[in-house]
Automatic annotation (TrEMBL):
This is SprT family zinc-dependent metalloprotease. GO terms for biological process: proteolysis; response to stress. The keyword 4Fe-4S does not apply. Residues 7-159 form the SprT-like domain. GO terms for molecular function: metallopeptidase activity. InterPro entries: SprT-like_domain, SprT_Zn_ribbon. Keywords: Hydrolase, Metalloprotease, Protease. It holds the Pfam family SprT-like.
C-alpha cells in the first residue's frame, strides 16, 4: 500500500481524535477496489478500500478529498452510531469541522468505461424487436433460465449476434 495514503489515513484519524477527545481504532486499509468508486468504508468491519487506478491517476485530490471522505464515514459511525445517513448531517459535520473540507458526496475523476458485450435475443412475434442481454444474463440462459416476451409470452431466443455497447 502506498505510504502517502497510509500516512493520510493516520493523519485523518489523529485530527478526529484531537477533535473528539477520544481514541479510535485505526482501520484496515485495502487497495482492492475496482470500477467507478474511489473508496468505500465498511463500517462494521472498520475497513477502508481504495481504488488503486483512481489513486494513481488523481493522487493529489485523492489524498486531499477521498481519504478524509472515507475516514469520515468510519468516524461518524463510531461517534454517532449505525442509524445515521451515509452523507447526512453527522458525516457532513465531520468533513467541515474536523477536516475543513466541503462535504462532497461523489468524486469527479475521469472514469474510462470499458466496452460491454451484449447478446442479442429475439422474439418470434416481432423479429425487429431486439433484447440485449448482459453476459451474466446470457450465461443464465445457457444454464436453463428462460426469459419471456411481455407481449406474446413466448420464450426469447438467442439470435447468435453480439454487439458492443
Amino acid at each position: 500500500m502506498p505510504e502517502q495514503l497510509h500516512a493520510r489515513v493516520q493523519h485523518c484519524y489523529q485530527l478526529a481524535e484531537d477533535f473528539f477527545q477520544r481514541r479510535f481504532v485505526l482501520p484496515e486499509v485495502s487497495f482492492r477496489l475496482r470500477g467507478q468508486k474511489a473508496g468505500v468504508a465498511h463500517l462494521t468491519e472498520n475497513l477502508l478500500r481504495f481504488n488503486p487506478r483512481l489513486y494513481a491517476e488523481n493522487r493529489e485530490d485523492f489524498l486531499l478529498q477521498t481519504v478524509p471522505h472515507e475516514v469520515a464515514h468510519l468516524i461518524a459511525h463510531q461517534v454517532f452510531g449505525a442509524r445515521i445517513q451515509p452523507h447526512g448531517s453527522e458525516w457532513q459535520s465531520i468533513m467541515l469541522g474536523v477536516y475543513g473540507l466541503q462535504p462532497k458526496r461523489c468524486h469527479d475523476y475521469a472514469i474510462e468505461r470499458r466496452p460491454r458485450t451484449s447478446y442479442v435475443y429475439l422474439c418470434r412475434c416481432d423479429e425487429r424487436n431486439e433484447f440485449p442481454f448482459s453476459a451474466q444474463r446470457h450465461a443464465l440462459v445457457a444454464k436453463g433460465r428462460r426469459y419471456y416476451c411481455r407481449r406474446c409470452e413466448q420464450t426469447l431466443r438467442f439470435s447468435g449476434r453480439q454487439q458492443q455497447t
